[in-house]
């Protein structure tokens, strides 16, 4: 999710630089409900784990309404076409 958010922020800046600034909230589709709940800070987890920095980064972008994370079923996750070998 963090890599995806970084890519989205980069694209948002690029679009702005090209003359297409957007204030719209960017939708990030994720097929892992546990990861979504951790990102939204709605579940407890072991805070000593390395994911704390990543979680904070995503949570900050959610709070700023720069991104919103939506659940998508694994079978409908279009990003897999780009990331998983056929
Ligand atoms: C879903 O997210 C949780 C929390 O980050 C992680 O532990 C788990 O491995 C993930 N599941 C899959 C299938 O990627």
Brief sketch in words of this structure:
This protein is 47% helix and 12% strand.
Please characterize this protein's 3D structure:
This protein has one domain. The model has no long low-confidence stretch (mean pLDDT 89). It contains 4 helices and 2 strands. The radius of gyration is 14 Å and the shape is globular. It has a two-stranded parallel ribbon. The chain is α+β, with helices and mostly antiparallel strands and 86 residues long. The protein has helices at residues 2-17, 33-39, 51-63, 80-83; strands at 26-30, 67-71. 2-acetamido-2-deoxy-beta-D-glucopyranose (NAG) is lined by residues 32, 34-35, 38.
Tally of separate helices: 4
Identify the bound ligands.
2-acetamido-2-deoxy-beta-D-glucopyranose
Percent in strands:
5-15%
Helix percent reads 40-55%
Low-confidence stretches: none
Class by helix and strand content?
alpha+beta
Number of domains: 1
Using only C-alpha atoms, the radius of gyration works out to 14 Å
- Average pLDDT metric: 89
Arrangement of strands in the largest sheet: 1-2
Euclidean distance between termini CA atoms: 22 Å
Q: Label the overall shape.
A: globular
**Most strands sheet:** 2 strands, parallel
Number of E-state strands: 2
N-to-C series of helices and strands: HEHHEH
């Amino acid at each position: 999710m963090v890599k995806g958010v970084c890519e989205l922020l980069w694209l948002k800046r690029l679009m702005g630089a090209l003359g297409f600034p957007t204030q719209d909230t960017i939708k990030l589709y994720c097929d892992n409900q546990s990861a979504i709940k951790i990102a939204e800070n709605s579940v407890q987890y072991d805070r000593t784990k390395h994911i704390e920095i990543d979680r904070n980064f995503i949570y900050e972008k959610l709070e700023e309404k720069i991104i919103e994370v939506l659940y998508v079923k694994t079978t409908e996750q279009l990003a897999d076409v780009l990331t998983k070998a056929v």
